[in-house]
Design brief:
Blueprint: E1 2-5, E2 8-11, E3 24-28, H1 32-43, H2 48-62, E4 82-88, E5 93-100, H3 106-116, E6 121-123, H4 124-133, H5 144-155, H6 184-190, E7 201-206, E8 212-218, E9 239-242, E10 246-252, H7 254-257, H8 262-271, H9 276-290, E11 296-302, E12 307-311, E13 319-326, E14 333-338
Parallel strand pairs: 2-14, 5-6
Antiparallel strand pairs: 1-2, 3-7, 3-13, 4-5, 4-8, 7-8, 9-10, 10-11, 11-12, 13-14
Helix pairs in contact: 1-2, 2-3, 8-9
GO molecular function: N4-(beta-N-acetylglucosaminyl)-L-asparaginase activity; peptidase activity
Site (Cleavage): 199-200
EC number: 3.5.1.26
């Protein structure tokens, strides 16, 4: 059953999948300008890779929700770094970058890794040097907003953060701390859910011929330990594409989600004939079994144009919004799915 509201389509989780129509653009979160950019790129003759790149780049430029692109999610030192990937479902080629510094167009660098090197994944300073060698401009990724976020965190004694502490006293300074497994529950209490601290644009594009590409872009977890790379640039975790099946893209707590390769699992479920909504639910349920309080969501689409989504239900988070654009829509449409 599909209930149509003004500018919103709610696809309830009891439904196997939403309408099977190609071409299709689907992405995590209500980042509609990114959806529109991907569609216009495809509609004007661009490839599915072009559409994914341009769509994610739009989010990088707009600093979607402060969690994609420059000027957001400063790490423990106050620096913003970027992660991104892109995958070609025809060839199974992947390009990815992690802990990218000084370069604003992370998804563009990821595609350059795929097309202009024999590697798959470059990280850190070396990834930035590669990007500069390939003609990308070096720029400061910090903004007044990111500096304010960092200053506020310091002024609040750097809590919460991603280190386990010897002392549970939240007034202690920001570390580093010696590991203490007995304080894992305290750490969980400290790290209250902040969906804006984990947003990633994950996008799937499928053209009329059924060719699939997928990609991601993010500035990672806020106040992360320097050098941390999440799930977003990891093939099979952040996103996965296979033109014989379909694609999937994830968002959420990457440190947990990468352990389960949810995007790969969802695509393999669809390969076995499972509908996209159920495939997404299976991927989320697998993680939920071990980490019931994790924050995460996934979108899935198969090569007929059917699509679905799933997320983990938390007290602060009961529905997940995502965007869809296909030839039956007059523009990018926001949809939501009830979390499980």
């Amino acid at each position: 059953m599909k209930v149509i509201l003004p500018a919103v389509v709610i696809c309830f989780s009891l439904i196997p999948a939403c309408s099977a129509v190609l071409p299709l653009v689907i992405n995590t979160w209500p980042f509609k300008d990114a959806t529109a950019k991907a569609w216009s790129t495809l509609h004007s003759g661009g490839s599915v890779l072009d559409a994914v790149e341009k769509g994610c780049t739009q989010c990088e430029i707009q600093q979607c929700d402060g969690s994609v692109g420059y000027g957001g999610s400063p790490d423990e030192t106050g620096e913003t770094t970027l992660d991104a990937m892109i995958m070609n479902g025809d060839t199974m080629e992947v390009g990815a970058v992690g802990d990218l510094r000084r370069i604003k167009n992370a998804i563009g660098v990821a595609r350059t890794v795929m097309e202009r090197s024999k590697h798959t994944f470059l990280v850190g300073e070396s990834a930035s040097v590669f990007a500069e060698n390939m003609g990308f401009s070096a720029e400061d990724l910090s903004t007044n907003q990111s500096r304010n976020i960092f200053s506020k965190w310091l002024n609040e004694n750097c809590q919460p953060n991603f280190r386990q502490r010897v002392s549970p006293d939240p007034t202690k300074s920001c570390g580093p701390y010696k590991p203490s497994a007995t304080l894992l529950e305290q750490r969980r209490r400290d790290q209250t859910i902040d969906i804006h601290g984990h947003d990633t644009i994950g996008m799937i594009v499928i053209n009329q011929a059924g060719q699939v590409a997928a990609g991601t872009s993010t500035n990672g977890a806020r106040h992360k330990v320097p050098g941390r790379v999440g799930d977003s640039p990891i093939a099979g975790a952040g996103a996965y594409a296979d033109s014989t099946v379909g694609g999937a893209a994830a968002t959420g707590d990457g440190d947990i989600m990468m352990r389960f390769l949810p995007s790969y699992l969802a695509v393999e479920q669809m390969r076995a004939g499972i509908d996209p909504s159920t495939a997404c639910r299976t991927a989320i349920t697998r993680i939920k079994k071990y980490f019931p309080g994790f924050f995460g969501a996934i979108v899935c689409a198969n090569t007929t144009g059917s699509y679905g989504a799933a997320c983990n239900k938390l007290p602060e988070f009961s529905k997940f919004p995502f965007m869809v654009f296909n030839k039956n829509s007059n523009g990018p449409i926001k949809e939501t799915v009830d979390c499980i």
